[in-house]
Design goal:
This protein has about 475 residues and is an alpha+beta fold. It has helices at about 10-15, 25-30, 50-65, 115-120, 140-145, 150-155, 180-190, 225-235, 275-290, 305, 330-345, 395-410, 425-430, 435-445; strands at about 20, 45, 70, 85-90, 95-100, 105-110, 125, 160-165, 175, 195-205, 205, 210-220, 240-250, 265-275, 295, 300, 320-325, 350-355, 375-385. It has three domains: about 10-90, Uridine Diphospho-n-acetylenolpyruvylglucosamine Reductase, domain 2 (2-Layer Sandwich), CATH 3.30.43.10; about 95-205, Uridine Diphospho-n-acetylenolpyruvylglucosamine Reductase, domain 3 (2-Layer Sandwich), CATH 3.30.465; about 210-420, 3-Layer(aba) Sandwich (Vanillyl-alcohol Oxidase, Chain A, domain 3).
């Protein structure tokens, strides 16, 4: 590998964005990603101003036989956006968003965050599925499949994806959609960053808000079994308009809970009703009537407010680690494990997230996208989080791994690729199931030398993944 302390005259002359090397102003900030536990030093950070810059940076890296990483929002828990000694192709300056309210289509550049897309679309009372933390990038969410509060009504993000503008490993720009390279379009809808660098996305939009009915309800952990047993019967038959996220953790310092409950083990449900508000009040009423809640804040609120409501649980710089499982039902055994996960937490910032899967997201044919099977059920994600000053990071990771192993027998081996971490090839195979071989064939066709190995989880034939 050659050193990139200096760059070629061509790149310096023709690159429109910023080129940052170790020791230069801005480098230290630009190399940092959302997960504070990731501390890596790329040889060069190419902060691209447009797709032409992406092409130049990629060709430069290939000419110099340097590894490549791609940064959009930088929210990968495994830190795929940055690697030691690699060229980071940074899309975070690429922020253009256009919305056509007549056709209900949005076009967004690869560096856009979900909050920025929502800001543009909500000006017209429109939205598409994506993001439950507002500062994630649209690229990682979309290419991984795309969860969000609207998925039971409007499907996953990939179900609303119209087109992708892509720079492939050969440095060529392509428009990929159902009519142009449909097999690649299939793979981009859930297949992750395996096949190229997505410089822009086009999405179908839907009338949403600007006011929706939603907010959290919290119960003491002792009431969690009652609430979750109700939820396992309620969620599969609930109207599509209702999004449901569960949160099992130490109660956060929210004013409506009361200071005496801060830090106590608790179970929360975050509800988002995107239909008629009066009908939503009727549908949500049985959940509000369950047990004796610590407090609730279900109100008509702006959709964007709910999109950012849990941002405080995922601040930039926090050290983090996660793993997830998909379970078909909240059996009594699974409920016991959810409760046990909170009781055994090693960090007060850790939590278990869960999403009710169903509605429109489960009515899409499994072969329509690379996401894989879409059974009605629940996705459960164990997240360890701790400040950088805490020396017990490995202990917190062990809490995640232990809880993940305990849940394994109740899952059927499934999970969504969106939440892959360090499970390696077995986890990738479990996430994609029978689609894995088809994705390998796409990798062979578009990136046979594994240029995107740092951002990929699908190996070419006979190759490995990092």
């Amino acid at each position: 590998m050659t050193s990139l302390i200096t760059t070629s005259e061509y790149l310096q002359t023709h690159f429109r964005g910023a080129l940052l090397r170790p020791g230069e102003e801005g480098y230290e900030h630009a190399r940092r990603t959302w997960n504070g536990a990731i501390d890596r030093r790329p040889s060069l950070i190419a902060r691209c101003a447009g797709a032409d810059d992406v092409q130049r940076a990629l060709r430069f890296a290939r000419e110099h036989e340097e590894p490549v990483t791609v940064r959009g929002g930088g929210h990968s828990v495994a830190g795929h956006a940055v690697a030691d000694g690699a060229v980071m192709i940074d899309l975070s300056l690429m922020k253009a968003v256009t919305v056509d309210p007549a056709t209900r289509v949005a076009r967004a550049a690869g560096g856009v965050l979900w909050s920025e897309l929502d800001l543009a679309t909500q000006r017209h009372g429109l939205a598409t599925t994506g993001g439950t933390v507002s500062h994630v990038g649209i690229g990682g969410v979309t290419l991984g499949g795309g969860f969000g509060h609207l998925m039971r009504r409007h499907g996953l993000t990939v179900d609303n994806l119209r087109a992708v503008e892509l720079v492939t490993a050969d440095g060529e720009r392509r428009r990929v959609d159902a009519g142009h390279e449909p097999e690649l379009f299939w793979g981009l809808r859930g297949g992750g960053g395996n096949f190229g660098i997505a410089t822009a996305f086009e999405y179908d939009l839907h009338p949403v808000g600007p006011l929706v009915l939603g907010g959290p309800i919290y119960w003491p952990l002792a009431q969690a079994p009652r609430v979750l047993r109700f939820l396992r019967e309620f969620a599969p038959e609930a109207p599509d308009e209702l999004g449901m996220m569960l949160m099992a953790h130490r109660a956060p310092p929210l004013p409506f809970l009361g200071v005496e409950h801060y830090g106590a083990p608790a179970l929360g449900l975050l509800l988002v009703w995107s239909g008629d508000l009066a009908e939503g009040e009727r549908v949500i009423a049985p959940l509000r009537a369950l047990g004796t809640p610590l407090g609730e804040l279900v109100r008509p609120v702006p959709y964007r407010a709910l999109q950012s409501l849990i941002d405080g649980s995922a601040p930039h710089g926090t050290h983090a680690y996660w793993r997830s499982h998909r379970v078909p039902v909240l059996s009594d055994a699974v409920i016991d494990l959810i409760v046990a996960s909170v009781e055994s937490q090693t960090s007060p910032f850790s939590l278990l997230h869960g999403w009710a899967i169903g509605g429109a997201a489960s009515r899409v044919a499994p072969d329509a996208t690379a996401v894989g099977a879409r059974e009605v059920g629940f996705e459960l994600q164990l997240i360890a989080a701790w400040p950088g000053t805490d020396p017990q990071g490995e202990r917190h990771r062990a809490w995640v791994r232990d809880g993940w192993e305990a849940l394994r027998e109740h899952t059927g081996g499934r999970q969504y690729a969106t939440f892959l971490s360090d499970e390696g090839l077995p986890g990738v195979r479990a996430a994609y199931g029978e689609h894995f071989a088809r994705l390998v064939a796409l990798k062979d066709a578009y990136d046979p030398s594994n240029v995107f190995s740092c951002n990929a989880n699908i190996p070419p034939s006979g190759g490995g993944i990092r």
